[in-house]
Amino acid sequence: MTKEQRTALARIISDMIKADNIIEESEIMDMKALMSKYSITKKDMSDARHIRFSEAVTALKDMTKKERQDIFDSIYRIALSDNVCVPKEALLLIALQYCLVEHDRKDSNGNKVPKPYLISCPTGESAISDQYMVYLESSYNEERNAEVMQDFKLLVTQSRLNGFNFVYIPKMVDEFKEMDSQYVKDVISYMAPHLNDTVVEDVYDRLCKMTTAEFFHSVIYEKLQVKAVYDAIPSILINIGTSVVPYCGTDGSIQYYTEFLCIPIATTTLSLVEEILAFYQSKVSIKTITITDNKGQFKYFGFYKALFDFLIAPPPVAPDLVFLGQNVQDGKYYVAFKFKEGRERIVKLMPKRYELYFKIATQTYCSRAKGLPSSKVDKTIMSHLRSRLASELKDVSFADQYKPEKEGNIFVLRLDKSKVFVRKYQIDNHKEYTDIPISEYKK
């Protein structure tokens, strides 16, 4: 087990122990046993405070199937150390089950379905209180939406009986439309008194016109810039909890990240939801039921609160990434981070690092592979590239979006493709140029 994997496992162990807010003696004993089994040091435990749960799970994906199953079984034993598995612990187990243990899935036509993955976003608060699952898509899928509409009452009922809220954005939007418009605007104005009337109208308008695909692109990408797959197939998004970094806060500021599990739908939405709920109920010891809320009321909790907060939040500092290529005057290679106000931050990269960065970008957005095979990536060059980008983007929101990430056996960029460009200069005048979307780039 590598240093990175030991640190990752240490984070998962700690999150499971802390999930029920009570640290039992039996849990500490089980933790010590696992530390000995996997050679986890106190330094690993200390380093684990500075990574998120989602990062920890991703770091373990390269292990063998047997090793991943063994880790799941070990973590499950910790969840049962006090003979009770609470909902928060069961949610973490769901994430581990689908990301580390689950077999490859195929749709009804026998085609492989993308593997489940974790995403996270900073929330600025310690937790989003309720358990919910959301139907998610990056573009409108007529078949899936028709099936969700047909099974909607059953999806909602079964979810509530198992302690979850099932969220289907078109139905949620209908709730807002059915309310008195002035009432909704007054609530928006009350909750965000800094907004003028024009902005309040805009927020209300966006609430009433929000689609699932727009939520995915406008909120998941533009607002949160999370590590989701840009062209994600219809999926179920589950709120699995909050990561606190660092969770012992004497050596740095505390940041809160809401973690989500995204599971692509292989057969039907209903069958996947029933499968998730069955696994959850097989693990959890405390049964909960979610009560139906009265219609006509502005809900300010859980997913509703999150969506509202996203809509009124100021946009993040998220520049475009522009590949400039080799400068004809000094022969150096550059990329630019271009901000909305027009300013650019120019970053010089060593030739091999630039070449790797550009290859990953073009393979992510311009090839069927959707990424660059890891077998073609020099680990040392990748490490230096990521470090360089990290040092240059300290003040940029969600800077990890600009760094190449390993997904399975490929390296990818997670930026919205609309934010990545290639600069083409005029042959006879190097001062004149056009920034071309990378999806339209041709050598």
Strand content: 15-25%
C-alpha geometry:
globular
What quaternary form is this? single chain
The neighbouring-strand order within the major sheet is: 3-7-6-4-5
Low-confidence stretches: none
Distance between the termini: 42 Å
Helix share, percent: 40-55%
The total strand number stands at 15
Textual characterization of the structure:
With 443 residues, the chain is an alpha+beta fold. Helix content is 44%, strand content 17%. It contains 15 helices and 15 strands. It has a five-stranded mixed beta sheet, with helices on both faces. It has a five-stranded mixed beta sheet with strand order 10-9-8-14-15. It is globular. The protein starts with a helix and ends in a 6-residue tail after the last strand.
Question: Short summary of the structure?
Answer:
With about 450 residues, the protein is α+β, with helices and mostly antiparallel strands.
Labels describing this entry:
15 helices; 44% helix; five-stranded mixed sheet; alpha+beta; 443 residues
Secondary-structure map with pairings?
Blueprint: H1 3-18, H2 25-37, H3 42-48, H4 53-59, H5 65-79, H6 87-101, E1 105-106, E2 112-113, E3 117-122, E4 132-136, H7 142-161, E5 165-167, H8 169-178, H9 181-191, H10 197-209, H11 212-223, E6 235-245, E7 255-264, H12 269-283, H13 302-312, E8 320-326, E9 333-338, E10 344-349, H14 351-366, E11 372-373, H15 379-392, E12 405-407, E13 410-412, E14 420-425, E15 433-437
Parallel strand pairs: 4-5, 8-14
Antiparallel strand pairs: 1-2, 3-7, 4-6, 6-7, 8-9, 9-10, 11-13, 12-13, 14-15
Helix pairs in contact: 1-2, 1-3, 1-4, 1-5, 2-5, 5-6, 6-12, 7-12, 9-10, 14-15
